[in-house]
Amino acid sequence: MAVKLRPFLKWVGGKRQLLPELRRYYPASIGRYFEPFVGSGAVFFDLLNRDRINGHGAVLGDDNADLIGCYRRVGHSLAEVLAALEPLAEEHARRGRECYLEVRDRRFNPMRAAWRDRGANLDEYPAELAAMLIYLNRTGYNGLFRVNASGEFNVPPGRYDKPKILDRALLTAASQALASPGVTLRHWAFDRVLDEAREGDFVYFDPPYAPVSATANFRAYTGRGFSDRDQETLQRVVIELARRGVNVLLSNSTAASVAGLYENNRDARDAGLGAVRVPARRSINSNATRRGAVEELVVSNVEPPEAAGIL
Ligand SMILES: C[S@@+](CC[C@H](N)C(=O)[O-])C[C@H]1O[C@@H](n2cnc3c(N)ncnc32)[C@H](O)[C@@H]1O
Question: In the CATH scheme, what architecture does the domain 16-63+188-300 have?
């Protein structure tokens, strides 16, 4: 493959930095691959780079309809997306912040509202919207996707000197990956994975993180939020899949309410799940002093190679 696959969107909680740790839990063989909280898809693209999906197919889901709409258009209407993105990149090079605000308020939000009024059909997500989403993501503040109470995208412009807006080679490679016959893109709630995952499949869960402390409020950045109840539902889904013989991998925060669901938890242990804490860096915090190393919880029923005596 000419271009190394990687996410073409920036995403809060994107997992590129945690990949070396997560790779230890990729199972030796993968039936179908499921990623119910796909975001920018760092693990999906990494598995493809390593030729680990092997034609068994992948189901990528997220409850962000725009994200899934954008992936479908990049997959199946790349030429139209590129044709709309190119002038945006040129205009941004000339007008920067002013261009961002105009695209966000006078073009993206009205077109998105019209699409939603027509029923928010993902097969009809316009290529122009997908292009604008990529543009706003590459140039907006920290790659956030955030909407206000009226559902309008309201992320402020970022401060980038020369943001890379149009990466034709990467988008072409990602398009081929997203449009390949075994790949399905779903707008869904994560627990739907229970309907489909079978023994031998591999599911990677990367939910929005619960805040570790009252000040580190990650949920504010993740749309409608992910409650403690959602975390409990997620734990039951992970346990049920592990009992079925599905290979599961979960990254999550070490907040006490979350860690308690997996560390020293009898149901989790009985289902064969182990939990470890690993150092991780998060970039959501705009305050550089709070950006230091934090821990992340990694839960899986796959034995890493050293534990299995392979290394
Ligand atoms: C931490 S991000 C995933 C980041 C991803 N691993 C990456 O590399 O970019 C969590 C994702 O879960 C999605 N999400 C939030 N609540 C959800 C739900 N109930 N069901 C499915 N997806 C959800 C968010 O839209 C977001 O894209």
Answer: 3-Layer(aba) Sandwich (3.40)
pLDDT for 182-195, tens place per residue? 999 999 999 999 99
Closest to 203 in 3D by CA, of 301, 82, 87, 103: 301
What band does 216 get if pLDDT is binned at 50, 70 and 90?
very low
Largest CA distance in the chain: 59
Substitution candidate for ligand 1 out of 194, 222, 234, 238 with most atoms within 8 A of CB: 222
Q: Yes or no: say if 211 and 255 are a contact pair by the CB < 8 Å rule.
A: yes
d(CA 36, CA 58): 10
Domain 69-168 sits in CATH at 1.10.1020.10
Helices (H), 119-191: 127-139, 168-179
CA 250 to ligand 1 centroid distance, Å = 12
The residue to mutate among 63, 229, 298, having the most atoms of ligand 1 within 8 angstroms of its beta carbon, is 63
Query: What DSSP letter does each residue of 90-114 carry, written as one string?
Result: HHHHHHHHHHHHHIIIIIIHHHHHH
Residue among 108, 177, 183, 189 at smallest CA distance from 147:
108
Domain parsing of the chain, residue ranges: 16-63+188-300, 69-168
